[in-house]
Write a structure and sequence with these properties.
single chain, alpha/beta, 2 helices, 5-stranded parallel β-sheet, about 180 residues, 17 strands, globular, 7-stranded mixed β-sheet
Length: about 180
Amino acid sequence: MPIIKQRFHSCGKQVSIAKEHIIEGFNNIDIGDFVYVGPRSILYSTKAKLKIGNYCQLGPNVTIVTGDHRIDYIGEYMRFVDDSMKLPENDKDVIIEDDVWIGSGAIILKGVHIWGGAVIAAGAIVTKDVPPYTIYITQDKTKKRFTPDQIEKHEQLLIKKYGKKKLQTQHHHTSI
């Protein structure tokens, strides 16, 4: 594990990456503290960045990809369209804030921002941003994880217990 951790752009303390993982683009990946990456997970960082915050857990078989293939290139087989032929919109950062749980088999695609406290259901395919404290089941089906009062209490207890600042969600509460 220490050798793997050294390859990332940055890697926090107490990070655990289970066996049989596939990781590409280490130099574009930042991982916070107390993160668990489940077995057989795939982290592909292309030209874009992948940031995983603190206290996150990824179940088995999670896939996160920051880029896409160009399929509109005229005069070349898609198999031979390489990074030099990509457009800026083909690669976009993926940001996963603190305290996010990503369920088994979930797929997170380019340009997604998952705000703090969110839960991604097993098998979900995420192509759009996920608001804080949201349980994301599908793009059209989400639930609130906590009420606004429960969020406030939860974050105050985290501060008391861990001496940590609140999650970066304060101005991003949305109704679902």
